[in-house]
């Protein structure tokens, strides 16, 4: 089992224990429900899981954190073919355009059009993927009866989403913006929001880190199935600090009604101010937005808060807010993760670039984590080194010592002496 698979298994295990970690459920009832179901476990396939096993995972997690949920390392390594995130997104988009088609026919069409190789991707793999995203069966997209709900304590649930922002004219070019934000389900307070010029995960990383630092830790983050909210990086981060990451069903935007309503408020109350007094940079847009958020939105009586403002409700329940004990942990848990095998010359390849790592990792598969500042080496969830980008030209003039893995050569002509 390779490192990526170990991580996937750990994420699955955390998904089962998360409601217990955050005391969202009555333990005995929840464990009985788990024992009665079949679970699709990464690497292992369909399994029934005993309540005692779940309790052991919970105990290990509370004692030693996310790392304790990973299976122990074994000498044999799995080599099964897995769909990458981009491949999954592509297939899900294809499926949404052909919901009328039975899965068997859809699978055959993918093979016929060269989208997948039958020998590499099985029907069951495709079927599991589509089932996971509710794209199988007769009830796809059926509207369900919905009742209003709201949690009565702050930081129990944060709704998350991304909204298309205004176009800005920067250096005579039209630039599109995107607003990424969280909203607290109870108080309607926005823990943090910010505009970006792309909808990539980097923006969500910034918003999540700032929200956690400023407003404490939620029990649950509730988001749709957008790519950035399904990223493994966000899953790992939530698991590390004990947050349950939950997703809406496909085609069900109404389930995140509070964040959608906030975006509408931004459109009707904030954007008109920009038309009257335009901004000319993303930095200026955010400065204006943050000022409006604190002076207007947070201080204005909310229709659903019985005459109170979001700020008043949140402040009245500060005793329910759990702040992170060590905010420095946020610098590592949101790093993108990769695994690489170190070559005999102490290098790894990442994004078509060559990086050099310490000699002691030669021949090993290492855990690396990445941000826009560098590439870092981790062991047992702790940073132990950094990978350095190789300058091929400079490296040609560097005097190197011979690798400790060099094979000793015995020469009969030299009287059996060993040359190293």
TrEMBL record:
Pfam families (UniProt xref): HTH_32, rve
Membrane-spanning parts: none
InterPro entries on file: Homeodomain-like_sf, Integrase_cat-core, RNaseH-like_sf, RNaseH_sf
Record's protein name: DDE-type integrase/transposase/recombinase
Domain Integrase catalytic: 149-318
Matches recorded under PROSITE patterns: INTEGRASE
Organism (species): Sporosarcina jeotgali
Lineage, highest ranks first: Bacteria, Bacillati, Bacillota, Bacilli, Bacillales
Top-level taxon of origin: Bacteria
SUPFAM superfamilies: Homeodomain-like (SSF46689), Ribonuclease H-like (SSF53098)
